[in-house]
Amino acid sequence: MHFWKKSRSYGWLWGVLAGILFLGIGASQGQLEAIWKKAVMICLECIGIG
Questions:
Q1: Where do the H-state alpha helices sit in the chain?
Q2: Count of alpha carbons within 13 Å of 16, Cβ hemisphere only?
Q3: Model confidence pLDDT, tens digit, residues 3-40
Q4: 31 and 39 Cβ atoms separated by less than 8 Å
């Protein structure tokens, strides 16, 4: 029982590292600019400026 409690305590760390890895891969492929443009357009449409 102690094994499961101990192994779960760092499970979130693997998720954070995977997220950082995938963000880095996407940024190196030039996807960061495309995602940023889409996010800005959605935000502007929500508040009614765009």
A1: 2-8, 11-28, 31-47
A2: 4
A3: 556 556 677 889 999 999 998 998 899 888 888 888 88
A4: no
